[in-house]
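Structure request: 4Fe-4S binding protein, Oceanirhabdus seepicola.
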Amino acid sequence: MMEIKEIYELINNIGVLVFSTINGDEVHSRIAHFNGCDEDGIYFRTMANKPFGRQLIETGKVTVCGISDSKCLGYEEEGTPNFPPSYTIRLIGDVKKVAPEIIKEKAKTNKALMSAANDIDKYPAMAEGNFVIYKAKGEIFDVDFDCINRDHKLLRKRFSFGGVPFNPAGVRITDACIECGKCKKVCTFKAIEEGTPYKVREDRCDDCGSCLMACPVNAIEESLTF
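Returned structure:
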């Protein structure tokens, strides 16, 4: 289980992230950043009169994603793409407004919220634009495709706070498995272990689909939606 502070530190290391909200039948995205956390959740702000703020107020929903290396996609001389070690993080969360007086009170003991508290007086429209993600589920997707720092490509971890449930990552091998080993042979992520039946390590599975195609008895089920 991850603490909110741990999640925030990974997010803060990235800096700016993509925040997406719902507007009717469209998804709207923009770049923004968080500005603190505590036991109640993770904080960010905008102007309440902006479309971003209005959409947050109307739906109470936000998704956020970012990557630790903004130059994560490079190319070899022959044009083959390469990916240096990096991690992505995403959150699917419920948000609510935080009253300006609460932000100011929290800022007395939480230095990360001081800029938000100061902006309440500096930018009046921001007084009603403080939000907290108070419950969410998320995932860290740590890649090392060239196995520079470890002997496998992927470390994948799901988490939640505020009592939000989530499904495990990765495909699932059922009892129909005949233990032929073909799935393990084609898995370049070292995510499949022998057993009765064979087992998928959710922390390494990329959902690449190779094992699904290789299984001769259709014993592997697609992953569940997050």
